[in-house]
Amino acid sequence: MKKYFQWEYIKRAMDVVQLLIVVLGVGFAIYQIKDFANNQLSRENQLSILYFDKLNSGVNKKISIAIEHSNPS
Questions:
Q1: Measuring CA to CA, how many Å separate 25 from each of 18, 29, 55, 71?
Q2: What residues does each domain of the chain span?
Q3: Helices 7-55 and 60-68 meet at what angle, rounded to 10?
Q4: Can you tell me the distance from the alpha carbon of 59 to that of 24, in angstroms, rounded to the nearest whole number?
Q5: What pLDDT shows up at residue 67?
Q6: What angle do CA 44, 50, 52 make, to 5 degrees?
């Protein structure tokens, strides 16, 4: 039991803990990057839908129809 309290074993255990923390940290960072990309795509889609809805409502509906039919009036 006394040999486990020597500095060599404590240092080795700390190195193992550090390695596990680094591996988990890298995995978490990769997950966050993928999640960020998905959130950005979701916001872009929401913005596109918002613009489409705004263009196809009210007075802008006439403009949208004119653009679709290439009608200048």
A1: 10, 6, 45, 57
A2: 45-73
A3: 90
A4: 54
A5: 78
A6: 105
